Amino acid sequence: MILDLDGVSSYCDAFVICNGTSRRQVRAVAEGIVEDLRARGRRPVGIEGLDASRWVLLDFGEVIVHVFDEAMRGFYDLESLWGDARRVDIPGVTQPSPVPIPRRDSPARV
Which residue has better confidence, 83 or 60? Predict the structure, then answer.
């Protein structure tokens, strides 16, 4: 999901929010995003959470990418917290039905 934060946030233009089904997948997705953008000449300003791989934040300046595991995505529920932001369609990508994600319960400890 992409949230357009123009006019809603002063520190970035957009959030990209996605999740993986395991910590290994979360880490692989985050590393893949960094690798792909580096190949395009974009380097992250900062990376947080890669070691634990429950919630990885990739800061590319005007765009911040959040890669969650399912429990953390439901717990933090950024889509609701940023409810004023416009959701952006991704050209060429069919949006799947939302994955049932636990909401606002304590994230499972593994």
Answer: 60
Whether pLDDT at 97 is above 90: no
Domain 2-88 has CATH 3.30.460.10: yes
> Residue 96: CA atoms inside 13 Å, Cβ hemisphere, count?
4
The total of other beta-carbon atoms located within 10 Å of residue 45's CB is: 10
Position 103 scores a pLDDT of: 54
Distance CA 50, CA 78 (A): 19
Task: Provide the residue ranges of all domains of the chain, joining segments of one domain with +.
Answer: 2-88
Say if strands 86-88 and 55-59 run parallel, antiparallel, or are unpaired: unpaired
